Amino acid sequence: MTQAAPAQRRADLDWIRVAAFGLLILFHVSLVYAPWDWHVHSKHTFAWLAEATAITGPWRLTLLFLVSGAALRFMSRRYSPREVLRARMARLAPPLLFGILVLVPPQSWLEAVDKGSWTAGLGSWWLREFSPAGIADGVPLNHLWFVEYIAVYSLAAVALMTRPSWLAALERSLDRLLAGWRLLVVPILFFALARQLVFPWFGQTNQLIGDWYNHLTSLGVFLFGFAVAGRETIWKTFEAQRWRALALALVSTPLLMALTTHPGGLAFNGWVKHCVHGLEQWSTIAAILGFGSLHLRRADGPALRYLTDAVFPCYLAHQTILVIVIYLAKPLGLPAAVEATLLVAATLGGGLLVYELARRSGVLRPLWGLKRSGPVQASPPSAATDAKAAGRPAEAA
User: Fold this and answer.
1) Mean pLDDT throughout 259-288?
2) Residue 142 and residue 364: Cα distance in Å, rounded?
3) Which domain holds residue 226?
């Protein structure tokens, strides 16, 4: 049976992306206190955060790539591949360039100052970073790696659009391959095998060249989301399997947390830990998509449209704000709870302030990933803004 391409906005995917951004802020704040290096670290360190990051680490970015792929499919309806490509690059290229030149340098500068490797000002740092020698040494992207990857992955999706018969065949194949319980089992096996066979060789670098494990999983789910966005059979299967997926997620999450720091995680050449990683990764995603599709698909309203439009500017700004605030707050010696609350509030509030300023300016809108269309516009009809970031260790920016 032929199914039409998606023809309307999906509020559940918008809610998922907004919630994932909230988790992103909490995750990046946690890196300030985690027992490994980050851009600027608090005076407080909590060893248990090494295990706690396993709660969202395996699936958060994977889910965002999947939702971004589905969002692109919604955006591309009724447009030619060339028009989609032009719109996509107009949406992503200006903020990526702006971010590299303006948003990332303060992060790397404050990191160097905090760690004692640089004593001069931001201007001197900027000139060093973008000198011929600095560029040859590599220009840091930090959290903007996600925007770069989405732009590149969009090229693959647009190429698929130029072969409608291939795309239709892929959709039908996924319908058959992922029918019933196979919607859980097949992706879990894929992620477990990728973690066992590819990750040990390449790791996850968030650098476009050579990041093969990341491309295998992230590009895979991006194109999966693009292909299944309008396949109601797939979404009904997500809904039908939601409770099984939730049960698997609830069992695998604490198990992976234990294996993260316990030597037993390396047993059997890592197979146990990697299988549990794949189990948590996909079962959590499947549960979120299933419950979201069932209960949030039509949960639209002004608040969601506002937040949907704000996500990308907030994403672009959030890590720069966080690094600046922790650098300024660190000498104050605040209690950890007070300091962390300040970081969350300042990062979220600062991001929303940036959005409020950007959406009112025709000049600033494209730089912050907003459509070039006059001030204070309603959110776009797609389910799409691209965002997320990385942290350290494996997904660190």
Assistant:
1) 89
2) 22
3) 11-368
Task: With a cut of 60, say whether residue 393 has pLDDT above it.
Answer: no
Q: Is the pLDDT of residue 387 over 60?
A: no
Give domain status of residue 380, yes or no.
no
How far, in Å, are 92, 119, 266 from residue 157 at the CA level?
15, 45, 37
| Per-residue tokens: 161 | 């659009």
Q: Is residue 246 part of a domain?
A: yes
Cα–Cα distance, 171 to 175 (Å, whole number)? 6
Kindly state the tokens that stand for 187.
């992706």
265 exposure class (CB count in 10 Å sphere: 0-12, 13-18, 19+): middle
Classify residue 375: in a domain, yes or no. Answer: no
Specify whether the CB–CB gap between 152 and 85 falls below 8 A: no
Q: Is residue 2 over pLDDT 70?
A: no
| Number of domains into which the chain is organized | 1
What distance lies between CA 108 and its chain's CA centroid?
21
Task: Indicate the pTM of the whole model.
Answer: 0.90
Residue 43 to residues 73, 327, 340, Cα–Cα distance (Å)? 45, 11, 12
Closest CA to 329 of 320, 347, 342, 318: 342
**Is the model's pLDDT at 382 over the cut of 50?**
no
Q: Is residue 195 part of a domain?
A: yes
